[in-house]
Design brief:
This protein has 15 helices and 21 strands. By secondary structure, the protein is an alpha/beta fold. Among the domains are: 44-93, EGF-like, alliinase (Laminin), CATH 2.10.25.30; 141-346, Aspartate Aminotransferase, domain 2, CATH 3.40.640.10. Helix 6 crosses helix 7 and helix 14 (443-473) packs antiparallel against helix 15 (508-522). Bound molecules: pyridoxal-5'-phosphate. Pyridoxal-5'-phosphate binds next to helix 6. InterPro entries: Alliinase_C, Alliinase_N_sf, EGF_alliinase, Ethylene_sulfur-biosynth, PyrdxlP-dep_Trfase, PyrdxlP-dep_Trfase_major, PyrdxlP-dep_Trfase_small. The chain crosses the membrane at residues 12-30. It comes from Oldenlandia corymbosa var. corymbosa.
């Protein structure tokens, strides 16, 4: 009995002891978790401030920013997307003009909002205050490594054994490259800087701004073909800008000028899987990329050049040293953080998101314009993409529209009349019959562009039908004066559905038919 009592009291003692141990253990856990959240001392206020501003409701048509305007009451103010207004951006401005001019790649903003936690950067007040990194350089070695990894993952450029220079956006690198290549010619006359129309207008305007005894903008590349082949004409040295895919028409351009006295700057701003199939890695002497079009962070001003030749690399580094002394360390840190996210799941997450969105936009636009005879779109062909391992349909960043009617010589003005602002063809060294419409802007911009284009094509159909009706009503005219089958447009469930009808004769049946079609459109 005594033995039994002893056993039971030992058991109770053990139980009590274990309960106390457990309690102590939980108290320790609780304390240590409190302690770790307490460790967020100086960053906590900043995080609260950032989340406070971003939680402000701007009705999905705008956003507030830490460095944006503050109301009289000390509250941040919503910055509304184009065509929206009001304190919370909820009011649509019905007659507003849609901006399809700017190449702001805001189509990627929803991706970054979805990946807010991973892409946010916390920066202390003392983050890299000095001019140089600890190794004396101006570039983050970690970021350089990440850029090489990115190209290997995407398979769009060879970086092994190449040098890399950072720039304040690719804009700064374009002229750094012209400077570096023109210094190597050893010629007494300035190198001729050329491009193939339609070309990105900054090549011309920037080269003209910085023109020197070493280089000068000389227009169209094709007009110099015969001179570039001859290696004896040492006064003819060429620097050709090659843009692939091209801004504005999305073509995968190749160099036009060949020969020892022709050097190329490959601007590969759009050579990423959301804008084009990637047929193979580019392996050119000088290639330029930009964060602006890769992740959409145009405001961060970050670009990089990949260079084969050490002397050319050194001259670009010298240019950067004397021009800005490198790229802001804040920008380099942000880029590093963004690329960490881009590289997740072997790049599939961001590039798939971007591709889906661009592909949707291109399909929509193509469908709207396919029934128009007045406007045509550039032709792009599907290609095998080594990144996605499939044949991919085109997904260009811009629509390059041609006004087909003789009287529509100024295509920009035609679209402006329809409340669409594009970029005129002559800005790209092309005819004014062309206009560029941006497809990379915000969802709001694209929705409105789509709507305005639908209305424009709808009016075209109406005008065609009216012409058909009035011609049919005229008994002196034997046939409809239209050589093509007449296209008609009907509106179903808010979507425009296009189909074509066979041409009818000038009979009353034909007249009835056309009138019925107009009525169908109207009601
Ligand atoms: C072909 C091309 N190159 C370069 C740039 C300049 O980009 P960044 O923002 O890097 O200066 C642009 C911008 O639109 C572009 O379209």
């Amino acid at each position: 009995m005594e033995k039994q009592n002893l056993m039971s009291s030992t058991f109770t003692l053990c139980l009590g002891f274990s309960a106390i141990l457990n309690l102590l253990f939980f108290a320790f856990l609780l304390n240590s978790s409190n302690h770790s959240s307490n460790q967020l001392s100086w960053s906590r206020k900043a995080a609260q401030e950032a989340e406070g501003v971003s939680s402000l409701s701007c009705s999905g048509h705008g956003s507030a920013h830490l460095d944006g305007l503050i109301s009289d009451g000390g509250k941040p103010v919503c910055e509304c997307n184009a065509c929206y207004t009001g304190p919370d951006c909820s009011q649509f401005i019905p007659d507003c003009v849609v901006d399809a001019d700017s190449g702001n790649p805001l189509f990627l903003e929803p991706f970054w909002r979805k990946n807010a936690a991973k892409s946010t950067v916390v920066m202390s007040g003392w983050h890299r205050m000095g001019y140089e990194f600890e190794d004396g350089s101006l570039i983050s070695k970690q970021l350089e490594k990440q850029i090489r990894r990115l190209h290997k993952t995407v398979g769009n450029a060879v970086t092994e054994g190449r040098y890399i220079v950072f720039g304040a956006g690719s804009t700064q690198l374009l002229n750094a490259a012209v400077h570096a290549l023109s210094s190597t010619t050893g010629s007494s006359s300035p190198a001729k800087v050329v491009a193939s129309a339609p070309y990105y207008p900054v090549y011309k305007s920037q080269t003209e701004l910085f023109e020197s005894s070493k280089f000068k903008f000389n227009g169209e590349a094709a007009s110099w073909i015969n001179n570039s082949i001859s290696t004896t004409a040492s006064s003819n040295n060429f620097i050709e800008f090659v843009t692939s895919p091209n801004n504005p028409d999305g073509q995968l351009n190749k160099a036009v000028l060949k020969g020892d006295n022709a050097k190329q700057i490959f601007d590969l701003a759009y050579y990423w899987p959301h804008y084009t199939a990637i047929p193979s890695p580019m392996d050119e002497d000088l290639m330029i990329f930009t964060l602006s079009k890769l992740t959409g962070h145009a405001g961060s001003r970050f670009g990089w050049a990949i260079i084969k030749d050490k002397d050319v690399y050194q001259r670009m580094v010298d240019y950067m040293d004397l021009n800005t002394y490198g790229v802001a360390r804040e920008t380099q840190l942000r880029t590093l953080k963004l690329l960490d996210v881009v590289l997740e799941e072997n790049g599939r997450k961001m590039f798939d998101f971007g591709y889906e969105e661009m592909s949707f936009r291109w399909e929509k636009l193509s469908k709207i314009l396919s029934s128009s005879k007045r406007f045509s779109l550039q032709e792009l062909t599907p290609q095998q993409c080594t990144f996605s391992n499939e044949v991919r349909a085109p997904t260009p960043a811009f629509a390059w529209i041609r006004c087909e009617n003789d009287e529509d010589e100024d295509c920009h003005a035609v679209l402006k009349e329809a409340k669409i602002i594009g970029r005129a063809g002559h800005v790209f060294g092309a005819q004014s019959r062309y206009v560029r419409l941006s497809l990379v802007n915000s969802q709001d911009d694209f929705n409105l562009l789509q709507h305005r284009l639908e209305m424009l094509v709808f009016k075209e159909k109406m005008a065609n039908l009216m012409a058909g009706v009035s011609l049919g009503a005229d008994s002196t005219i034997k046939k409809y004066n239209l050589s093509q089958p007449l296209n008609t447009t009907t509106v179903r469930d808010g979507n425009i559905d296009h189909h074509s009808i066979e041409e009818s004769e000038e009979s009353s049946a034909g007249l009835m038919h056309s009138t019925l079609n107009i009525l169908k459109i109207l009601f």
